[in-house]
Design goal:
Elements lengths: L9 H5 L2 H10 L3 E3 L4 E4 L2 H7 L5 E2 L21 H8 L9 H12 L2 H6 L1 H18 L1 E3 H6 L1 H11 L9 H9 L8 H27 L5 H7 L1 E2 L2 E2 L2 H31 L2 H9 L4 H11 L5 E6 L3 E3 L2 E3 L4 E5 H4 L34 H18 L4 E2 L18 E3 L1
Parallel strand pairs: 2-10
Antiparallel strand pairs: 1-2, 3-7, 4-12, 5-6, 7-10, 8-9, 11-12
Length: about 400
């Protein structure tokens, strides 16, 4: 089984789907010794376990590290864990409930809807540069700058500072890979310190002089006497940037790579732009940008006769779930008109992605603008994949018009 699932192999990263099919055929849960995790490959299990309150993104609301049979992280990593552990993605009730409720007050559907013209303007500006240059790297010139610019605009981060955000985010997100190296941890710690210091100053400025941005709204958000602490605000802003763009970046680039490999589907989309809404959902299902999400086992659970004891960690394989033939008809076929498409790309349960509506707006704007303004866009060379497996994407995507 270890040969089947090899997240450190570039060949596996480039195409994990045959290995997932084998995992699904071998059973519902598999122990993977290199990461000390239980792999869960089936859609029904992943979808159910995301909602199971016997599992958690953290265990520290109920146990110490020692009580849970886990080794505390090294003290040198503390700045990363402080930043990460106060974000709602890695919290459980009651803290998760309180923070998500307060953030939702600022991050409303109306807030997102108001952003549509801004997203469309930014997408048009980026695509125009690629069009006028006769091509370029879609990853660096469209996929990366669009969601970063949108989140920065939402947060009220000055344009002159926005180049700082992507490197900080990339270094922090390195810690979400399996068994990250100490060098990765050192970069994440440095980025956590720098990003936190930057946001602390920005929050102080917004307290003194509030604006129409999301940071000002987070400062103002309260309910029954509850407010976000400064650390919760900092962690929320970082989470919104990291979660709010990493998946979108890779969906845009990986999505176009998928379209280029399916010329009949691309031709259908170019001929009928009304397919765009279902196409975006299908591209997220077909080549999932975030392949794996982890959950701690807080109370013993049983999967297909196997008891998974408290203190264990599950690896829920989103990429495998989204290709499960038990849920999706012809799952290995790209069908941009697929109607019944309940993919798990945005998660499920209390941790369902708060930014899903914004991601959909960004994806529709970027794909739509490229379809309109670069209808003859062609791939120049097959891309290489980055070594990361959990957050999975290509190094570049070179195109010409």
């Amino acid at each position: 089984m270890a040969e089947t699932f090899d997240p450190w192999s570039l060949a596996f990263v480039a195409d994990p789907y045959p290995a997932y099919a084998e995992l699904r055929s071998l059973g519902r849960v598999h122990y993977f010794e290199p990461t000390n995790q239980w792999l869960v490959p089936h859609y029904a299990d992943v979808n159910t376990l995301l909602r199971d309150r016997r599992l958690g993104r953290t265990y520290l609301h109920r146990f110490t590290h020692e009580e849970f049979g886990r080794t505390p992280p090294p003290p040198a990593h503390e700045p990363f864990h402080t930043l990460n552990d106060y974000g709602m993605l890695d919290l459980e009730a009651p803290d998760h409930t309180r923070i998500r409720r307060l953030v939702a007050k600022a991050f409303t559907p109306r807030t997102v809807e108001v952003l549509v013209p801004t997203v469309e303007r930014l997408a048009a500006e980026l695509v125009a540069k690629v069009r006028d240059a006769g091509g370029g790297d879609l990853l660096a010139e469209v996929a990366e700058p669009l969601p970063v610019a949108v989140i920065a605009e939402m947060l009220g981060i000055p344009a002159a500072d926005r180049d700082l955000l992507r490197p900080w985010s990339a270094d922090i997100c390195g810690m979400y890979e399996l068994n990250p190296a100490e060098e990765t941890a050192a970069r994440a710690v440095r980025a956590s310190l720098e990003f936190s210091a930057y946001l602390r100053e920005l929050i102080a400025a917004r307290r003194a002089d509030p604006g129409d941005d999301l940071i000002s709204a987070l400062i103002a958000a309260y309910e029954e006497g509850d407010r976000l602490s400064e650390q919760e605000m900092i962690s929320t802003c970082v989470l919104l940037l990291n979660a709010g763009h990493e998946a979108t970046v890779n969906t845009i680039a990986n999505g176009w790579w998928t379209l280029f490999r399916h010329p009949e589907q691309l031709a259908a989309l170019r001929a009928d732009h009304t397919l765009l809404s279902t196409a975006v959902e299908e591209l997220m299902r077909y080549d999932t940008p975030l392949q794996l999400f982890e959950r701690w086992v807080l109370d013993d659970i049983e999967i297909d006769g196997t008891v998974i004891p408290r203190g264990s960690e599950l690896a829920l394989l989103f990429g495998s779930a989204n290709r499960d033939p038990a849920r999706f008809e012809s799952p290995d076929t790209l069908d941009l008109a697929r109607a019944d498409n309940a993919h798990v790309t945005f998660g499920a349960g209390i941790h369902y992605c708060l930014g899903a509506p914004l991601a959909r707006i960004e994806l529709a704007a970027s794909f739509g603008e490229l379809l309109r303004e670069a209808p003859e866009m062609r791939l120049v060379a097959e891309p290489e994949w980055k070594p990361g497996y959990v957050i999975r994407g290509v190094k570049e995507l070179l195109v010409e018009l």
